[in-house]
Amino acid sequence: MKTSHIPTHECGVFGVYNHPNAAELTYYGLYALQHRGQESAGIVTARDDGKPFRAKRGMGLVGQVFQEGDLKELVGTRAIGHVRYSTTGSSTLKNAQPLMVESSRGQIAIAHNGNLVNASSLREELEADGSIFQTTTDSEVILHLISRRNPTVGGGSLSQALSRVHGAYSLVIMGENEVIAARDPFGFRPLVIGKLEDAYIFSSETCALDLVGAEFVREVQPGEVVVVDPNGLRSFKPHAEPSREALCIFEFVYFARPDSALSGRNVSHARTRMGRELAKLHPVEADIVVPVPDSGTYAALGYSEQAGIPLDQAFVRNHYIGRSFLQPTQLIRDFNVRVKLNLIRSAVQGKRVVVVDDSIVRGTTARARVTNLREAGAKEVHIRVSCPPHRFSCHYGIDFPNPKDLLANRMTKQEITKYLGADSLGYLDVDGMVRACGLPANKFCLACFTGDYPVPFTAEDDKEVLERRRLRSVSLVPEEETRQGFLL
Ligand code: SF4
Questions:
Q1: Which of 58, 76, 306, 441 would staple 47 via disulfide (CB 3.0–4.6 Å)?
Q2: Are residues 213 and 275 both part of a single domain?
Q3: What's the structural domain count of the chain?
């Protein structure tokens, strides 16, 4: 589990077609994708004899949700799985994925990573036409559109359904005969195809293919739909190609696992190059470079190599932190910072320290760390951040706080330096970050840094929008209908 200060994660999806141990493979695949979501996990399996899909979903980590007996129950040669952090809809079991329905198209299960920007209006349209929703997730909107047969209400085919949804989606879908992988036209979230003997595997990240011993075949392209069924694997692109792509660059900076590759680029190498770029942009005289584990580790390595300053792992991470049920008072917050990362005092005492972190969002954790270092006797504390300042919120699946809570949105760099109590502060710039990832800027979404949003959104379409709708409940029996009745 990640212990960084990023307030949230997103989701991971995994799918298997044609393997006798589809559930076990999915279980291990989800294990490898656990960093993408820790609130709930689920697997749905399908047999080839048309029997009902089997499903197990639960709150918590993969290892907590599935016991050995569960996997034995999840029979089938096809499976899809999901790990979730709530980006849309509240974190409850009913919102855990994969979602599953019986429809006029048979059984359908879906697992979704990303965030739709028009879920609310689509849901209203579908509800007005009689759809009944079971969850408050945007993913259920896709499920409804897919299961419809009537083109006039958005259904008719998978292509027609996907043409109605806007925003970020990497999907694995299981029907009566097939497993389908689909990625939005901008390719916000990653999705890859693997092969294991005669089985096809779909996964959010390549690290899960490695774990199950599958060979990487290729990425699902932005806008591509890949279908694997008894006829084999085929693919089509139902959408008009947008003029640019928009892979979330924050996957490189923070979210993806360092052993994964995105667009053919290894994530750890990209992070190391970010550190090198950072050292060129913001050099400083210092004695040691200290990473904030885990996601700052590779950037610190790059900084240290470029600057010729030794690396010292002075922060020690506690790997065994569960969820804290204590109310987050200031005392508890300070404790939480320390329980996650402890400091080796003797490593920093009397030293000029460069601390390399992957990002500063609210700033509270970074501030506590500087205090920590000062208390331990560090002579100077220089903060270096391996991405540009976060000024804008994300509408495509990463749950950054409200812009007013983003430190860089409220303060100038000088004010932030003072607030953190640091001697100096240096952020990587957009050009350096993009260069480090090794692809042109028009391949990336950079919106939380630049405010240039590839897909327009409305201000109302935030993460809570589908929750809020419940408050606008409508009476089942309107007053006009009862006016003619008798008063008992
Ligand atoms: Fe990623 Fe930021 Fe774009 Fe969201 S806004 S998809 S976090 S780059």
A1: 76
A2: no
A3: 2
